[in-house]
Write a structure and sequence with these properties.
Layout (H helix, E strand, L loop, with lengths): L61 H22 L6 H7 L6 E2 L2 H10 L3 E6 L8 H15 L3 E6 L1 H6 L14 H28 L10 E5 L1 H4 L4 H7 L6 H5 L2 H8 L6 H4 L1 H16 L1 E6 L4 H14 L18 E4 L29 H9 L6 H8 L4 H13 L5 H15 L1 H14 L24 E7 H6 L2 H8 L5 H9 L3 E4 L14 E3 L5 H4 L8 E6 L3 E8 L1 H7 L11 H18 L11 H17 L11 H22 L1
Parallel strand pairs: 2-3, 2-5, 3-4, 5-6, 7-11
Antiparallel strand pairs: 1-6, 8-9, 8-10, 10-11
Length: 654
């Protein structure tokens, strides 16, 4: 718990603040490197604020120092406004919106810590599946709120801890994943979290938050340190100072030992690994708070003990562990249940509601929220949206005037889709739902400017399987064509020559995927050079533009043949021949239809060309690929018109 010495920090009391009291220095992987830092000497005392800025010496430019000073002053003034009751503390907002369940520490002390200091917070997610589900969104919401209010906010992808498996809430061991499946899950979830952060920025702008210089968010992967963490150091610093008895007394451990299939040594050390993650984020980024789901309270408490155990053994310059402003805290969010106490977040079939547009379509996710009962609307609007509570009250009042319209449900569904998939998808999904269920829909749409290029929200989450023989040939242009990133082999060669496509990894790595992806430009290299970029010997990760990603897995030729699939450029499928024939048919159509002279009878050759085109498109038309003018119904109408014209011309001659 935090000490009552916080009372000494109120009012005009002064204290000297450590380097991370304002904001930590992020790594290069962060979206913002704009941070606050302090040094040894005190320049001046800001009015009524415990936050004191210290000059940075000669190592930093005057401009940067001025920005840091302004940010520190703004934070101090905000702390004063909160103390005077002129502005709510973010912790009070969490409590009001029902985002807090169990707390590791005193609620009042955590509130005071958040008022006085720009602390860092994180949420950890293990990539045990290819997508986040609706339950993950609950602990992420307070993290997003913290980011929008100026706190350092980190999402941690637990690739290393996922290999061990969290025993919380389980009686049986987690099923071991194949390495290839695990790596694909890691990449998919990485980009899904990245997409969420992009949408959070958009939501912040939409609700009037102005991005500040000190805003910092980051996405980390614990592979970064676990892949190079010496076991001996881990055991010396932590293992020798942790007693097994308290670990075995945890409810999760006792249930698995007595009711389940036993507990492995790896599962027993899971909480220590998670605590070590927290310690790493604390010493690097000043992360003092962990936010977790309802089943993570035990892990959070253990993590606090880990940080407090290791911190005295590895002192951080300028940090006083005994200061109440360096306290380590955490809390969990409530379990996602309805008004009857039943767990929600499942589809009608009993499966998870995924945040992937492939596993759960935006339309299905929208429909799920529209079907929720009225009595759950206030709670769910507070949990899943950034709508101010005053506006929520207005929405609920409007809902009461005409319940069949389900105004609250539609607004909730729209907000969730906008956060998960983006505003453009939310708008199109709402229109689609209104078209299907027009009677009780909401007519108000939220408009915004859209772009036609591939955006992160519209980018395909493509997991492409291709035969191994294609990689054996090593022709990168053919691989780009087969993966759907190029329109043809020649286009693939052009992209490679111009270095307009990127490949994940470093040349010659030929090993397991590391902590993060480093994309390098694809070049028109020799065929054998392509194999140097394989991950785990069978996977390529390709990117065109910023967000068009292809995760290509190469499987045996026999396995691919058994799938019954084909790929662009595959020999013997006739796809190239069909494309050439299509081009000729389009040219023939342009010559025979667009130039029809009503004063002359169409020739039989023109009608034959159209009939041949009709025959082709009746079997091959794809609305996602071909021009709508090539739809068989359109061609039939043109044929009918020309036949009538030919008939009329013949009658005129008689």
């Amino acid at each position: 718990m935090l000490s009552s010495s916080f009372l000494k920090l109120r009012g005009s009391a002064r204290h000297r603040i450590c380097t991370r009291c304002l904001a930590p220095q992020p790594l290069a992987t962060f979206s913002s490197s704009r941070v606050l830092r302090t040094t040894e000497e005190t320049e001046e005392t800001l009015p009524r604020s415990p936050i004191v800025l210290k000059p940075l010496g000669n190592t930093e430019s005057t401009k940067i120092y001025a920005k840091k000073k302004a940010a520190a002053t703004a934070w101090a003034e905000r702390a004063d406004r909160i103390q005077d009751g002129k502005e709510p503390c973010l912790w009070d907002i969490f409590e009001e919106r029902g985002l807090v369940k169990d707390v590791a520490g005193s609620r009042e002390a955590i509130r005071e810590l958040m008022r006085l200091k720009r602390i860092g917070a994180y949420v950890g997610i293990d990539p045990t599946a290819a997508s986040l589900h609706l339950g993950h969104l609950v602990p992420l919401m307070p993290l997003f709120w913290m980011y929008m209010n100026g706190y350092t906010s980190i999402t941690l992808l637990g690739s290393a801890t996922a290999k061990v498996g969290d025993p919380s809430g389980r009686l049986t061991d987690r099923e071991k994943q194949h390495r290839d499946v695990f790596n694909k899950n890691m990449v998919s979830m990485h980009y899904q979290i990245k997409k969420l952060w992009t949408n959070v920025d958009a939501m912040a702008r939409r609700y009037g938050y102005k991005e500040e210089w000190a805003w910092t968010r980051g996405q980390r992967n614990n592979n970064e340190w676990w892949n190079k963490q010496p076991l001996l150091e881990f055991l010396q610093l932590l293992g020798s100072n942790v007693r097994v008895g308290p670990m075995l007394s945890r409810d999760t451990v006792k249930r698995k030992l007595t009711e389940g299939d036993g507990l492995s040594f790896a599962e027993l050390t899971y909480t220590l690994m998670q605590g070590w993650d927290w310690w790493t984020l604390y010493k690097q980024l000043g992360v003092q708070m962990q936010i977790g789901g309802s089943d993570q309270f035990g892990n959070i408490v253990q993590g606090i003990e880990v940080v407090k155990t290791v911190r005295p053994q590895q002192p951080i310059h300028g940090v006083d562990p005994s200061s109440p402003l360096e306290e380590i805290v955490g809390f969990t969010t409530p379990l996602l249940t309805n008004s009857s106490g039943e767990k929600i977040g499942k589809s009608s079939g009993g499966g998870n509601l995924w945040l992937s547009n492939i596993k759960t379509s935006p339309y299905d996710l929208y429909g799920y929220f529209v079907r929720q009962p009225d009595e759950d609307m206030e709670r769910m609007l507070k949990l899943f949206t950034f709508i101010p509570t005053k506006e929520i009250s207005e929405i609920l009042a409007k809902h009461e005037t005409d319940k069949p319209k389900r105004v609250a449900q539609h607004r909730l569904a729209f907000e969730v889709i906008a956060l998960v998939h983006g505003m453009d998808v939310a708008e199109s999904t709402q229109v689609e739902h209104r078209a299907m269920h027009g009677k009780g829909s909401v007519s108000t749409l939220f408009t915004h400017d859209t772009a036609e290029q591939v955006l992160l929200n519209s980018a395909p989450e493509a997991h492409k399987k291709l035969p191994k023989k294609l990689m054996d040939q090593g022709n990168i242009a053919r691989i780009l064509f087969a993966a759907g990133l190029a329109k043809s082999v020649s286009d693939g060669h052009r992209l490679a020559t111009q270095q307009a496509v990127y490949i994940g990894g470093r040349e010659g790595q030929n090993k397991e995927m590391g902590a993060s992806l480093t994309f390098v430009p694809v070049k028109a290299w020799f065929p054998e050079d392509t194999k140097n970029y394989l991950i785990n010997g069978n996977m390529l990760i390709l990117r065109k533009g910023k967000h068009d990603i292809r995760i290509v897995e190469f499987i045996s030729d026999e396995e691919y043949e058994a799938l019954g699939e084909t790929y662009p450029g595959q020999p013997g499928t006739g796809r190239v021949r069909n494309m050439r024939e299509l081009a000729k048919l389009r040219q023939s159509m342009a010559e025979s239809v667009d130039g029809v002279d009503p004063s002359a009878a169409p020739s039989d050759s023109k009608l034959q060309a159209l009939r041949k085109q009709l025959e082709f498109f009746e079997e091959n038309f794809n609305p996602n690929v071909h021009n709508p003018k090539s739809h068989p119904d359109k061609i039939r109408a043109k044929i009918q018109r020309l036949e009538q014209q030919q008939k009329l011309f013949g009658q005129g001659e008689n």
